Amino acid sequence: MKKFWDFVIENRSLFLAFVFLGVFLVLSVLVPGFFTLYNLTNMTQYGVELGLLAFAETMVIISGGGGIDLSVGSMMSLVAIVIGVLIGRVGIPPLLAIPVGLMCGASMGLVNGMLVSRIKILPLIVTLAGLYVYRSLALIVAVDPQFGPNPMPVSNFPESFYFVGQYRIGGIPFQVLCIYLPVLILLHFILTRTGYGRKLYGVGSNEKAALFSGINVKNIRLSVYIMSGILSGLASWIITSRIASARPDIGTGFELQAITIAVLGGVSIQGGEGTVLGVVLATFIITMLNNGLQLAGIHQIWQLGALGVVLIGSTLLNQFLIKRRKL
Amino acid sequence: MIHWETIVKRREFSVLILIGALVVVFSIFTERFLSINNISNLLLQTAGIVTASIGMTMVIITAGIDVSVGSTMGMACAVSGLALTAGLPALLVFIVAIAVGLIIGLFNGALIAYGEIPPIIVTLGTMNLVRALMYQVLGGRWISGIPPTIRFIGLGKMLGIPISTWIAGFLIIAFTYFLNMRPLGRYIYAVGNNQEAARISGINLKTTLVFVYALTGALVGFAGLIYVARTGIVQTNTGMGFELDVIAAVVLGGTSILGGRGTVVGSLLGALLVGIIKNGMILLNVPALSEGLVIGVLIIVSVLLDLLRSKR
């Protein structure tokens, strides 16, 4: 029996799977309306945006060197408003505007990545500055001169734009099946089966060794920030489609939630460690918790409060168990 | 003897030059910038950030970070606001505000030092948790109509300078002395430079860390009191984003995120720089929307200048 628990502790994903089951059972028993097919499928669509941002943080944090991306929320806001303005105000068809939005996300990631990898400014500083700059740009772009100097949300989208965020295929939300799952599989494949993935872990766990073994540390670091920008763009596209409105402050606060989920999922803040599976489980746990609290009629600020408790509690428990095992 | 070369090379010096340049530009282009009224307004607005940045400087010197200061400040505001409207005397509320911050700081510090959890994770957690608790304390309502007993801290003046500025100034001097002259102050740098070496040389790592976070909490609690005294209003979102302003001020002031390096005077200058930019932009009628753009670019530029200089 002791061996079994040691194994669970050792294996973060298994540990999270137990937490997941526990939370699932508790909510099913305590919260009426939680354990219904409608709610369970419906719930998944709320987790997609956060899940994609958590993937972004996962890649960036694994790359090490103090890697963190505080700007994902602001990148999300700017992409949302760019897509919104292009479709709603300029009148460009969504099929054209969305790639432009994603490119916009990628270029913000490129700027972050260049500053981190080429000029060697610490990620915390680069992305903190990015948080300010992109948020500010989102507000500026959102200004509609027709209605005075204030930023305005855009919500006159054509019906076709709502497809990604509001439609279902066989009862499963479109964005879960056609965006989240493919991204998940792709990232898992990249991290576990490709040379790039191995290099990424190498760069994260020991930069010097990676450098000496001929890995292009700069390009690896650059690439994760670009990926983070693209994933933020994807999340932004989905959320604007889901809530049918592009707001310049849509991503505010998302960065911290995304980091929380990545860390809960077992991504080591020191870099070089973490799996897609763990982050997916963490996303499930948090999404489920949010949903359960909402159904129970608890104010939504407690969704964040619970996030804080889960983050500290799980890390503390993990530390405690690891220590006990060492004795 | 004054070593000019070392002074010129310091980060504080370049921030000072930048502040000087901005003051000149703003006073040329706006008439009101150099008025007594505006300057005292500016000082009033930055007093809270300066107070909190003292703690954050020490936290970052130990190679840590505290993103919970915004929530902590909000909580201190909420509790002291409630205490004031309930009719508690000002002196007691003063203690209560600091105690609230101290408790949250102790909680952070204990988890970081004894739980051995990375600071960014602990404070991310408490940031969210404290914000939710604050909502509970406020019951989702606003507090307004703060009695005038406390407002002298926010609005009162001595020799034409706001009281809160005097206090912030005093704290800067006190902590400059503390960090440079007291053993515990030096330990903070030692811990940030090399944790293992600090531990081996007999510094109590855990106590030092708990101290730094607890102190930050207490200072932030005080910053909350200044905020309540100045504005007279507490909302559920009071203090949101405060952590970013404080971190920006500290980073601009030259404290290294890697730990071991930084001064509270630098953070004071960083806070003033941010304050002057915000203030000047309002006077110049630049839309407030581009404020973040300017601050963000400034952070990058100032770090770039540092890098260029150190390479030369």
From TrEMBL, chain A:
The organism's place on the tree of life at top rank: Bacteria
Keyword Cell inner membrane belongs to the record: yes
Keyword Magnesium recorded: no
UniProt-annotated location(s): Cell membrane
Record InterPro entries: ABC_transp_permease (IPR001851)
Alphabetically ordered keywords of this record: Cell inner membrane, Cell membrane, Membrane, Transmembrane, Transmembrane helix, Transport
Membrane-related topology note: Multi-pass membrane protein
Transmembrane intervals: 12-38, 50-68, 75-92, 122-143, 172-191, 222-244, 250-269, 276-295, 301-322
Subunit composition and interactions: The complex is composed of two ATP-binding proteins (LsrA), two transmembrane proteins (LsrC and LsrD) and a solute-binding protein (LsrB).
Function text: Part of the ABC transporter complex LsrABCD involved in autoinducer 2 (AI-2) import. Probably responsible for the translocation of the substrate across the membrane.
PANTHER family in the record: ABC TRANSPORTER PERMEASE PROTEIN YPHD-RELATED-RELATED, AUTOINDUCER 2 IMPORT SYSTEM PERMEASE PROTEIN LSRD
Protein name: Autoinducer 2 import system permease protein LsrD
TrEMBL record, chain B:
Keywords: Cell inner membrane, Cell membrane, Membrane, Transmembrane, Transmembrane helix, Transport
Record-linked InterPro entries: ABC_transp_permease
Chief location bin: membrane
Source organism superkingdom: Bacteria
Membrane topology: Multi-pass membrane protein
CDD domains assigned: TM_PBP1_transp_AraH_like
Functional note: Part of the ABC transporter complex LsrABCD involved in autoinducer 2 (AI-2) import. Probably responsible for the translocation of the substrate across the membrane.
Assembly, per entry: The complex is composed of two ATP-binding proteins (LsrA), two transmembrane proteins (LsrC and LsrD) and a solute-binding protein (LsrB).
Protein name: Autoinducer 2 import system permease protein LsrC
Source organism of the structure: Thermatribacter velox
